[in-house]
Amino acid sequence: MSKYKLEQAEKELFAVYQVLYSGADIEMWYDWNSRLNDTRFSDHCFWIMRDGERIGGAVINNGTVMYPFLISPFADRTVFLRALFSCCNDIVHIRGILQKDVSILLTFAYRIHVIRQVMCCPADAGITAKLPDGFSLHVLNDSFDSVTAAKVILEGYGGGIDHELFGVPDEIEVINDTNRLIQIYAHRNLSIYVFDETEQEVAGLCIAGIGKKMPLGFAEIGEICVLPKYRNKRLAECMLKQVRANAREYAQVVKLCVTVGNHAENLYRKIGFQPGPRFANMSRR
């Protein structure tokens, strides 16, 4: 009978293996060195060993496993996961699970919490965006009223899949999250909002930018939403295109992360965002 155990991994070597074998991150396609540096973030890197041989690895910390991966030529994903659980019987959460492992984990009494994917597109100053008559585009920065931003976000996401999965946050949570994003992106702020000149109100907003510690120096869209009564006027499309154009001065790529099942994914594809692999976060029942 095979014997399984965990073995502490040396971070730099573990990072190489994780980037090559995890298959869960579109960002690694662009800049090897930067992606590798971003991966060396944890002292909780472990090999999964079988009879003294490495068959895979994972980041394991406080009952959570992140981005587990198999090491070729080992290919039995069920045996790998069974080995992982035999070494760690206190695993509650597993993050960064590829779609092909979801069905296996369901048999181990784990349930899907959310399925997400990163999407990327080129930053391009040649992209043009034209708003409908009566609307104007403005820079959104830390002087923007956070209560107004929170109300637009809450109403804009209302009835969507994120609220369905995670519940509706209260206004204070949204204000804090909005302020946090604006602070992160202050290094290279790309945030904008659309204003209805007739009704004298904010119709939609996009919080975006480049943080100092952003992997690969990508521009990132953290939030984008439009009030329900302004949908189907191409306001979100206009904001996405404007961010793509404005980002080109500072970055080559714009990224965002979308919950699978969000109807906005179709818009992102239309604008030119390329989806990466879908990955799931799962929890023990």
CATH H-level superfamily title of the largest domain: Gcn5-related N-acetyltransferase (GNAT)
Report the portion of residues in β strands: 25-35%
Principal-axis shape equals elongated
Which segments are poorly predicted (pLDDT under 50) over 5 or more consecutive residues?
none
- Average the pLDDT over all residues and give the rounded result: 92
Pfam family, one: Acetyltransf_7
InterPro entries: Acyl_CoA_acyltransferase, GNAT_dom
Protein name: N-acetyltransferase domain-containing protein
Domain N-acetyltransferase: 152-285
Q: Mind sketching the topology for me?
A:
Blueprint lengths: L3 E5 L2 H11 L10 H8 L5 E6 L2 E9 L2 E7 L6 H11 L5 E6 H9 L2 E13 L12 E5 L6 H12 L3 H6 L4 H15 L2 E2 L2 E5 L4 E10 L8 E8 L8 H13 L5 E7 L4 H8 L2 E2 L3 E6 L1
Parallel strand pairs: 4-5, 11-12
Antiparallel strand pairs: 1-2, 2-3, 3-4, 5-14, 6-12, 6-13, 6-14, 7-9, 8-10, 9-10, 10-11
Walkthrough of the structure:
Helix content is 33%, strand content 32%. The chain has 285 residues and is of the alpha+beta class. The protein folds into two domains: 4-108, Aminopeptidase (3-Layer(aba) Sandwich), CATH 3.40.630; 120-276, Aminopeptidase (3-Layer(aba) Sandwich). Strands 1, 2, 3, 4, 5, 6, 7, 8, 9, 10, 11, 12, 13 and 14 form a 14-stranded mixed sheet that branches. The longest helix has 15 residues, at 171-185. It starts with a strand and ends with a strand. This is N-acetyltransferase domain-containing protein. Residues 152-285 form the N-acetyltransferase domain. GO terms for molecular function: acyltransferase activity, transferring groups other than amino-acyl groups. InterPro entries: Acyl_CoA_acyltransferase, GNAT_dom. Pfam families: Acetyltransf_7 (PF13508).
